[in-house]
Amino acid sequence: MNGATLxxxxxxxxxxAFVQGTSGLGFALIVAPVAGLLDPGxxxxxxxxxxxxxNLYVAWRERHSLDLRGARWITAARLAxxxxxxxxxWLIPKDDLGAAVGAATVLAAxxxxxxxxxxPGPGAYVGAxxxxxxxxxxxxxxxxxxxxxxxxxxxxxxxxxxxxxxxVGEVASLALLFATGRGHAADVGRAVLLLPALAAGxxxxxxxxxxxxxxxxxxxVLVFALVSGVVLIAGT
Length: 236
Fold this sequence. Notes:
Elements: H1 3-23, H2 27-38, H3 45-61, H4 68-91, H5 97-114, H6 122-139, H7 143-150, H8 155-179, H9 185-193, H10 195-208, H11 214-234
Helix pairs in contact: 1-2, 1-10, 2-5, 2-11, 3-8, 3-9, 3-10, 4-6, 4-8, 5-7, 5-11, 6-7, 6-8, 7-8
């Protein structure tokens, strides 16, 4: 990876960490398409690894707002769907992975923008967990289903619960990817190398997360994801 690529990734990771630390979603929607354009080989391990320290931090910061009941339902379904996500990754040719990430990003953004509000129950939690387990393991993008479930809940509850669900799922996905030879230490090394950028974005989010309009930021993230996903598909 050359210096220019590393610099672009660092800026992207810092911005994405700030957005997710503030609104509760957005890291993978921002980082995955950019990483896919720069080097599809970074997906999904680099994105999943980068999110672990961020979600640890957000989950601890917002721990008092955690929806434990919803997190349990989502996590159980998320773990159950992880092997299917791995199978999907095996089915996608390596040269088509960038396009697959772009398609998943566009679909997730469109659904998030058009689905009306609803009161979540066990069915919604399980559905969100299943879809997240499938798409996040295969492409690194899995936030929108969880954001849909919690989009009309208090921002702190969304941030805390999504962070906890992500955290458990990311560890499970990475364990399975490495156990089956789809994970590479170099991608983890790149994520570690960019920890200062991630920490900077997360720290900035701590300063403003109580004051930023999370709904407006959510729309911005989804529009960015839509555009970047289309660019990623067109470029492959």
